[in-house]
């Protein structure tokens, strides 16, 4: 099998043939170069990074996750580090500084120009996790009283430093009163006032959680979202690419926690095994303790199982079906909460909808269980399985739908109430229902 470009670059590194590595590296596209650096060991990553031209090296660096940026800086010389940090936008710089030790971060900040220090300090002044922490303070603000010609001159003067010029905030007496798109501004006659071109702004306070701002940006299909302070004064801009990064990170977190783990926060192959271990072990211990509930239920109904051993055959079917039903409901409602389709006050409506849905599912599965099990093991056992599936599916769907709403009410990430927790609860309660139905139907 022909070696991949990545394997050839690794082989060149082992031989010390840096000319070959450089040629193969420069033949790759920017996304391929980023993917390559993500998969290399830290020492090799630093060597390959130094082989990139300065402009391309900076582009590659900005696309790496913050933990990989930190590892790369640790392997570079101080002069190289300062060059990279100086070129970063304030929001990207803050993201990197958050990853670095405090002493290193202070030293790098001290080396910035006063203007860059002020811009970086503004972003760092907002709470972690807020949109203010991710915004760019490098925005172009237009005065509502200015003419279109004057506004275009303002935009041209800031083209090199502004984060974006496609969405331009409009202010009156310093406060945000509208926004105007670049296309509309370019098409306007010179003497038209900016106020006549502006439309109602969609803006967000700098202290709002970044995920909430990102979902607003996606919902309104905005290229950029103005960020304002408590007095409605524009302090920054939150662009769609940063919004996509936030939504991707939130999705990664939800997927990881729904599977009973913590998000890695970096590419899998570049994550140390110790970090993967830490992301999983705590959840496994917690869920292991929760699973003891199932064991206690089995112990409590041990006599019932001894009287009719055939009941034990269907335990995996019942608890598996209940867990899957609860997980489906939890996933659906968690998604609805994230999109704003469901709010905390909708808890009763969610419970009723999931109860009805679970009952329909349980009736369908219970009928199939009644017929299938009845033909093979007897109609009395089939009736036990059918009734249990009806009750378990109804219970699991209701609990699975309510848990994310309860989490949001408690101001906890709904993903923390993850599917493994729901499965553990449904396992224990489902077994109780199973044995109670069996005792009633079979007279045990």
TrEMBL record:
SUPFAM superfamilies: CBS-domain pair, MgtE membrane domain-like, MgtE N-terminal domain-like
Residues of the CBS domain: 197-253
One GO CC term, this protein: plasma membrane
InterPro entries reported in the protein's UniProt record: CBS_dom, CBS_dom_sf, Mg_transptr_MgtE_intracell_dom, MgtE_N_sf, MgtE_transporter, SLC41_membr_dom, SLC41_membr_dom_sf
Compartments, as annotated in UniProt: Cell membrane; Membrane
Pfam family, one: CBS
Primary subcellular site in the record, as a coarse category: membrane
Transmembrane segments: 359-379, 385-409, 421-442
Top-rank taxon, per record: Bacteria
Subunit details: Homodimer.
NCBIfam families for this protein: mgtE
Cited function: Acts as a magnesium transporter.
Record's protein name: Magnesium transporter MgtE
Species assigned in the record: Kocuria flava
